[in-house]
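Today's session is about reading a structure prediction critically. Students often jump straight to the picture, but the first step is always the sequence itself: look for stretches that repeat, for charged clusters, for runs of hydrophobic residues. Only then move on to the predicted structure, which in these notes is written as discrete structure tokens rather than atom positions. Here is the chain we will use throughout the hour.
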Amino acid sequence: MSVFFFHDQIGNRGTVTEAAGFDPEADAQKLRDAMKGAGTNEATITEVLAHRTIAQRQRIKEAFKQSVGKDLADELSSELSGNFRSVILGLLMLAPVYDAYELKTAMKGAGTEEACLIDILASRSNAEIRTINAFYKKEYEKSLEDAVSGDTSGMFKRVLVSLLTEIYEAGEARWGTDEVKFLTVLCVRNRNHLLRVFEEYQKISGKDIEESIKREMSGCLEDVFLAIVKCLRNKQAFFAERLYKSMKGLGTTDSVLIRIMVARAEIDMLDIKAEFLKMYGKTLYSFIKGDTSGDYRKILLELCGGE
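Below is the predicted structure for this chain, in token form.
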């Protein structure tokens, strides 16, 4: 199913770039050796997978299947554990497959990880959303829209579904506290148009749109609207803030940290790092280093790409 055109690299502002002199067979052999015997050599696994693009990793998977006759992801999955395992398995997936997998995981079981639904659906482009939809349906035999509809409710559900289905609302936006009007405007998804709307709103009301959202809304609905606005204004700053919040204070929200580090490593991690430094006066590298440990820390720092 050729859903999208395969680039060797998905962005040009990533920390992960194509490995020179790439030899998928040799890499497959290294990974095989790293899993042989009693222990697992996590350092080798990190060294190989953190320094190859997604496209190159697909070729390693093929080479591994050819030479070993087994699925690389399955093998690594049974050898590894914890957060390190989550990072590795994420790195082996195509971008839309990883997004679809994360969305599916967020809706598993009793609770829903709303933050995941918001992070992905508010930040991906229309083209990316279309591809995620296609992969979701292929992989889980259910449309993403149906899954989200069944797992969320009320206005929050309407916003997510509209992000998924690219509703283009025509006509003039009448601003009110009426959330439907917010929805109508924000889900137009035409960035330049919306940025002008925000400026106009500021002129008319004397308030920034983000302040109004905070004042008029709460909970998941506030979160999703703020995410939409922030992503339109500066997507890399949005991710920097999400990373900061995942690590500041007590404990780490590993799911958020992993998702962003894996998903953006090849797209715009350089810019996310720059925004992080500008916003918080500290490097993303130093934050990750202070907040994580072991092989998990090592691979995240590789994806972060030095100070």
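Discussion point for the tutorial: Confidence is low (pLDDT under 50) at residues 1-7, 168-176.
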